[in-house]
Amino acid sequence: MTATAAALDVPWSAWSLRRPQFTGIHLDSAAAGRMSTDVLDATTAQLRRESQVGAYVAEGEAAEVIDAGRAQLGALLGMPPDGIAFVESATAALRALLSAWPLPQQASVAVAPSEWGPNLRTFRMHGLEIRHLQVDEHGRIDVRALGESLARRAPSLVHADLVAAHNSLVQPIDEIAAVCRQAGVALWVDAAQALGHVDTSFAADAVYSTSRKWLCGPRGVGVLGIAEPWWDRLTVEPLVLQPDRSVVGRLESDEANIAGRLGLCVAVQEHLAAGPAAVHSRLTEVGTLVRTTLRDLPGWELVPSPPRSGAIVALRPTSGQDVFSERLRLLSDHHVLVTASQSARAPLEMLPPTLRISPHVDATDAQLDALRRSLGGKRASRWT
Predict the structure, then answer these.
(1) Average model confidence (pLDDT) for the chain?
(2) Nearest one of 368, 376, 355 to 288, comparing CA atoms
(3) How far, CA to CA in Å, does 365 sit from each of 6, 290, 293?
(4) Within its chain, how far is the Cα of 258 from the centroid?
(5) Lower CB density within 10 Å: C or N end of the chain?
(6) Which of 298, 287, 329 is CA-nearest to residue 167?
(7) Torsion of CA 346, 349, 352, 357, to 10 degrees
(8) What is the pTM of this model?
(9) Residues 6 or more apart from 65 whose CB is under 8 A from it?
(10) At what angle do helices 365-374 and 323-334 cross, to 10 degrees?
């Protein structure tokens, strides 16, 4: 057995065993990962408890677990616990940042061409000028060019999607953060596709993510982290029901989804128990296995991946297929769940639609071979 084949024989099958049985093949973690039974039980138990003793009493009972989760998320995101706020989604986090941050009049934001389309819309809605950053042949922000650009005409902030939503691009975030720090320009990081997927313990000024993707937590919950030097400069009103909350904590809603937050905290505990470095390594391996399985697939072309890539793989049709119809066919005929990735995910790149495949750590050889067959190709010669 070769090293590649041996890599499939890893103890990640327990990941699937802790989840309800899926009706097909789930290759869509970049959209929403599969919650474990423990996450489901914690979430539903909290809802049941709210009905039994009252919502606010149940919230108080869950405070210790949620505070522990806040601290654990802070450690994963490189932020202190008091710099962490639970929000409804990554989009809600970005809106909260734009409302609270001390941005100047006629503010500007510098982004890469791979920037998530809805983020661009949110920036425009808040009146920010969008500037384009120079990237290398793989789409990664050119760190040297970034430093020169910030010295020449600094924007109000730099915004980076750590992991792109539409392909395997992972930005060199540590180098980007160092350049921004040296130039005195704030760095915000969208970690929606990164948290639970790659290392996120970098030093940004603000970072935000969601629960439902690679951490496999509930939908409707997100997290926002803000570095301590900015706390006193935020414009945030005290919470009506919790006036003593920290400045960043005030970005949380009074009308909170406590059950969802509790489920996220349990998902974080599971991630930590599995070992973040081990999970990150396995997901990198899974991405490589998917690309190996799908190479030379008739009618499809792999979107090229940078040397440092994650578990998101994009397929471009080469025979006139409609990816949206193909996604529905895969689901209805083969019970394979993937995403039809719209061009609007990264409109600055003006890319055609692709099929996005994003398995989690429990991906198997049999599942990937089934995906290839369902797309019209024979088994890949993986072992040669």
Answers:
(1) 92
(2) 368
(3) 11, 9, 9
(4) 21
(5) C
(6) 287
(7) -50
(8) 0.92
(9) 262, 265, 266
(10) 120
Q: What is the pLDDT of residue 377?
A: 62
pLDDT in tens, 66-113: 999 999 999 999 999 999 999 999 999 999 999 999 999 999 999 999
Instruction: Give the range among 64-73, 319-328, 349-358 with minimum mean pLDDT.
Output: 349-358
Tokens at residue 118, please?
């809805």
Q: What is the per-residue pLDDT across 129-163, written as a single tens digit (0 to 9) for each? A: 999 999 999 999 999 999 999 999 999 999 999 99
Say which DSSP state 242 is in.
-
- Provide the 10 A C-beta neighbour count for residue 142: 17
Question: CA–CA distance from 353 to each of 142, 344, 345, 377 (Å)?
Answer: 26, 9, 9, 20
Is residue 234 within 8 Å of 102, Cβ to Cβ?
A: yes
Beta bridge partners of 25: 336
State how far the Cα of 17 lies from the Cα of 362, in Å rounded to an integer. Answer: 10
C-alpha radius of gyration, the chain, whole number: 21
Residue 166, Cβ neighbours under 10 Å: how many? 26
Nearest to 339 by CA among 194, 195, 193: 193
- What strands, in cross-sheet order, belong to the sheet with 84-87? 84-87, 222-226, 206-210, 186-190, 157-161, 108-111, 129-132
Count each helix (H run) and each strand (E run) in the chain, helices first.
13, 13
2-13 pLDDT, tens digit each: 334 334 445 787
**Residue whose structure tokens are 């710099």:** 83
What six digits make up the tokens of 222? Answer: 């997100």
CA atoms within 13 A on the CB side of 364: 12
| Spatial separation of the C-alpha atoms in residues 131 and 86, rounded to whole Å | 29
Strands (DSSP E) contained in 211-273 are 222-226
